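Q: Okay, next protein. This is Chitin-binding type-2 domain-containing protein from Cardiocondyla obscurior. I've checked the sequence twice, so it should be correct. Can you predict the 3D structure?
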Amino acid sequence: MYCTLICSFLTCNFDAIPDTSKRTYVLKIDVIVCILSDYFIDIKVEFANRVVTALTRKQEAAEQSRRKAALATTPKTKQEQEQEYEDDDDLVDQCPEPNGYFPDAEQCDKYYDCQDGKITEKLCPDGLVFNDFSPQHEKCDLPFGIDCSKRPKRQKPQPSPHCPRMHGYFAHEDPRNCNTFYYCVEGKFNMITCPDGLVFSEKTGICNWPDEAQKKGCGSRELFNFTCPKVDESVAATHPRYPDTEDCQYFYVCVNGEVPRRSGCKLGQAFDERSGKCDWARKIPECKDWYKDQLTDEELDALENPPPKPKPTGGPSRRKSNRPTV
């Protein structure tokens, strides 16, 4: 290199810059300026992510103390959570690309905002994680469907009543309550109940069939006390249906003849075991009085024979064209 020829004109600045995401130090060579005769060569070398792994014990202890002190303080505001890494002259280039949004390598709810090479560390609201589907989009999302297996760390939870974290869908505290869950926003909860026959899935955050939710203690047999009768393969392939002996409106579908799923008829109807379909309750002898204490005869008549929908009026009329046809 030309610089070795004229050491008197060589200016080098070495700084060890802390990389807080990895508890290591990044080596920074600011500027090497070499002046030779009537012209000069300006060589600027920036090492992004060239990590000095041999930290002294003193540096490691100081870093650990700083992290523990930070965790002990009150939760930071959104503005305080955004940490800009820059100095007066140059910025350490840690961006994979000059512009975009990039996930942290270890923490799923942390990401980096790179704008024209400037990097800003950001943190999603508690309970959300960074969705890294595209560097062009800055999006924090619920953790369902986002792979955090390679960056499993998350920020310290900020719990509130019924909300383990400030945002998200969370199961009821009682493990025997299978179909109730909480939707939390900013630490405030709304209790939601799944439709009949479904349970809350902690893996997907939605209501699902018990056999698909696979929640402990919430299987079909535990919930409904029903077991599919053994049938041959030809019958099993038709997904046979069986009545709920305690409720005329409901029945069980045995998927592949083995897995029971509870389903139901619409209001005013009951399951007819002979046809394997739903029909009006008054037409099924064993269920003709099922709605007696729930609906009046007039209400049942209205359900069975709804009034015809009125025809739309007031629209533009379509007049036949007077043009001659060819």
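A: Here is a summary of the prediction. The first helix runs from residue 57 to 72. Residues 128 and 142 are 5 Å apart (CA to CA).
Q: Noted. On to the next one.
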